[in-house]
Specification:
Elements: H1 2-36, E1 45-55, E2 63-67, E3 83-91, E4 100-110, E5 122-131, E6 141-149, E7 156-163, E8 170-180, E9 184-194
Antiparallel strand pairs: 1-3, 1-9, 2-3, 3-4, 4-5, 5-6, 6-7, 7-8, 8-9
């Protein structure tokens, strides 16, 4: 009889030991699952430089006006409230004939009411940059949003999302004009993307 009790005790002790090991294993897995969900993983940083070519006039225009405010005859507000749709080309270098790497598609709206001498207006941008270059970023995109004052020395907008390799991206992009004319703009875009 004593041998039987010892056997029962051993079986019960083994069951409890296995239960404790299983519980510890489950507790040990919790940090791994939160890290896999982004809680502890460090995001990858990608820095890209490319050039946006936006043409506002002529047969090859990449931007068209899609809305204008009702001014009631008041012309003192300048371009305030005018909205444009854009489908601009992105290239690897600053000249238009260099290799295309994608497109910037979206809208921009003139948001400034100032018309003082020497004070340039500002615009608010909402656009998606889609990469079509035959690289690892093909068919990936980033979403850009922000306000840009053309009289500011430093112009920065936010990267608020993305798709493909840039899914759930965050970051920022600086926009530096290379050339500005009444019919075309070339911007150097330096994007820092965390994904």
């Amino acid at each position: 009889m004593a041998a039987g009790r010892q056997y029962e005790y051993s079986r019960t002790a083994m069951f409890h030991a296995l239960a404790i090991v299983a519980l510890l294993a489950c507790i040990g897995l919790l940090p791994l699952s939160s890290e896999a969900a982004g809680g502890g993983a460090r995001p990858r940083k990608t820095v890209m430089i490319f050039y946006l070519h936006n043409v506002m006039a002529g047969s090859n225009a990449t931007a068209v006006q899609v809305g204008a405010p009702f001014t009631g005859g008041n012309t003192s507000r300048g371009w305030f409230g005018r909205a444009f749709a854009m489908d601009a080309v992105l290239t690897r270098r600053s000249y238009r004939s260099s290799k295309e790497v994608g497109a910037a598609q979206g809208v921009y709206i003139w948001e400034s009411t100032t018309r003082e001498e020497g004070n340039l207006p500002s615009i608010i941008l909402f656009f998606t940059i889609t990469f079509n270059d035959k690289t690892r970023y093909e068919d990936s995109s980033i979403i850009v949003q922000g306000s840009v004052g053309f009289d500011k020395l430093f112009r920065e907008v936010a990267i608020v999302g993305g798709t493909g390799r840039f899914r759930l991206a965050q970051g920022f992009a600086s926009l530096d004009p290379i050339s500005i004319s009444p019919s075309a703009v070339v911007l150097n875009i330096s994007a820092t993307i965390y994904h």
